[in-house]
Design a protein that fits this description.
Two copies of one chain form a homodimer. By secondary structure, chain A is an alpha/beta fold. Helix content of chain A is about 25%, strand content about 25%. The longest helix of chain A is centred in the middle third of the chain and has 14 residues. Chain A is globular and about 60 Å long. In chain A, about 50% of the residues are buried.
Chain lengths: ~325, ~325
């Protein structure tokens, strides 16, 4: 049985390039005790992948050169030598960018593919969903009446964080690129307002919409937008750093110029590492599943196809081409 | 009765200059109901004064042009129309840089000039002492066994924060400029180590001394040293921003390049605004006074003289010339 894999073969400088990866076909290796063979149906594309392509270790070690590119995938068990999994089970986990993955059973999670589409376990019911859920609730501590600002508001995590904020009784302002994305954020997702960063002076726009300041800033983008948000903090503001997608492909990472504003605001800056919340995943999945079934939150996927298109699809994340959760169908 | 005053007449660009101030002599105005006339004996010089010279409002409004320069002062009541104060009382408060201050009684605090020298109420028993005390204890939350890094370690606030850290059972590493300051920090103040930022690669030096990382970084300087500290955070690190003295005179305020490290460290960045703690001042003064009397902390003043020297003395703060608390004797 043959296995098509996407290997990381070069560390990108700046934007990810096709040649940073190599696509190879190798035989599927036999599984050993405790392992599971998974056939991937879906591969997740997430901004965090850009960090995983760098050398060294941050919260997780970088992918080694020559190794299968790390990714969350979802699919079905083909063969199992782990007691928790049987042939035919729907699962998701860090399977890598490949057709077949041989993984230790303990890194997989079962998915209920009857309740929701399997691909949703890579998005709203998976790592990005948990990031939005715990990032907003456990780091942002929203209180009814708070004003929440969310960047990357049309993206997977931002769109969900903002909708959860609305469910918690907050005023939610999004930031997104372009009129159509802003329309989606306000009209379809129900945010109270959306700032088009391609058109507006972001700092002035925040001030105009939220003259009393922002209680929570949920940051997916970093860079100038983060600095603009820092100029508009309410007393006791919580700045939750979820990502810095504007910066990941930029060798000269922009510093946070206005960091002293956290002092005068008597606020805190912290971040969300979703891996820390995996033991509490069921809390999030239970709430999110219920909200989805009740129609209280909306979820949108951007589906692409073909393993060989992985590098180009990954780039879409950083150019802002995608709407909602970007996934690759195999 | 004549009153010599130092007025702010120009907003400084870059380093503070003599011409940013004007020294005038005016008659002392009569006090009205609720006011107190104080003869200043001591004027405090504090890094925060540089921020007060800028236009606009941060945590406190900027000093207006033509207004007496804001400063903490300590002296004796000459005349009182406030029930809490009588002639001869030793007091401290925001009296401004002038010989005589007419102030509302409620902004003054009585000082016990028999227990400690009056000038100490501008330092270890005043605003800077409270800053170190509450900044470290209430924002840093030191636990016995933690490793604390303190920049500006030979300065008023840094030297005290580090000594309090030692009293709480922590390992304390200082950062200071020059061999003699580092000797003072380790040999006289009892820090476990001190990094001379003028000689060392600060990030590498922190890593060598604290290979497991820093639990608390108490930052008085900002700039490159803050970024170096961010590279060495332990899991759950608390970064407490107390000041950014390296940046105050720099029009191009350096951003915090490595802010994303707070995410991977699962840490928090917050700041200390001492005004928020004035209602709890007695807690700090009681502990600090006892530690001083028991000889468990050391305090050093750098005394200068003459109101007319105020601009030059203020500059000493930013060039690192002073040891310990810088004060001006009238």
């Amino acid at each position: 049985m043959e296995n098509k894999q996407v290997l990381l073969v070069r560390r990108p400088e700046g934007m990810v390039k096709d040649d940073d990866f190599s696509i190879v076909t190798v035989p599927v290796v036999p599984i050993t005790e405790g392992q599971v063979l998974v056939q991937n149906e879906w591969i997740s594309l997430d901004p965090a992948m850009r960090g995983w392509m760098n050398a060294g270790t941050t919260y997780i070690r970088g992918v080694a050169l020559g190794e299968v590119m790390r990714a969350f995938g979802a699919g079905y068990v083909v063969e199992s030598r782990h007691p928790d999994f049987a042939k035919g089970d729907a699962v998701q986990g860090l399977t890598g960018v490949q057709q077949y993955a041989v993984v230790e059973g303990h890194v997989l999670t079962k998915a209920d593919a009857r309740a929701f589409p399997l691909s949703w376990y890579l998005g709203i019911l998976g790592m990005p969903g948990l990031t939005a859920y715990f990032g907003l609730l456990d780091k942002g501590h929203p209180q009814a009446g708070d004003t929440i600002l969310v960047s990357g508001a049309a993206g997977m995590i931002g769109s969900l964080a903002g909708q959860i904020g609305k469910l918690k009784g907050c005023t939610v302002i999004g930031i997104a690129g372009g009129r159509e994305k802003c329309r989606y954020v306000t009209e379809e997702l129900g945010f109270d307002a959306c700032i088009d960063y391609k058109e507006a002076d972001v700092a002035a726009a925040i001030k105009a919409i939220a003259p009393k300041g922002i209680h929570i800033y949920f940051d997916n983008v970093g860079g100038e937008i983060l600095d603009a948000a820092m100029l508009n903090l309410a007393t006791g503001a919580r700045v939750v750093i979820c990502g810095a997608i504007s910066q990941y492909n930029d060798a000269a990472f922009n510093g946070l110029k206005n960091y002293m504003k956290i002092v005068s605001a008597r606020g805190t800056i912290s971040g969300i590492i979703v891996f820390d919340y995996f033991p509490r995943a069921q809390e999030a999945i239970s709430d999110l599943g219920r909200w989805l079934q009740e129609g209280r939150i909306r979820y949108r996927e951007h589906i692409t196809e073909g393993l060989e298109n992985f590098p180009a699809v990954l780039r879409m994340l950083f150019t802002g081409e995608n709407y909602g959760k970007l996934i690759l169908k195999l």
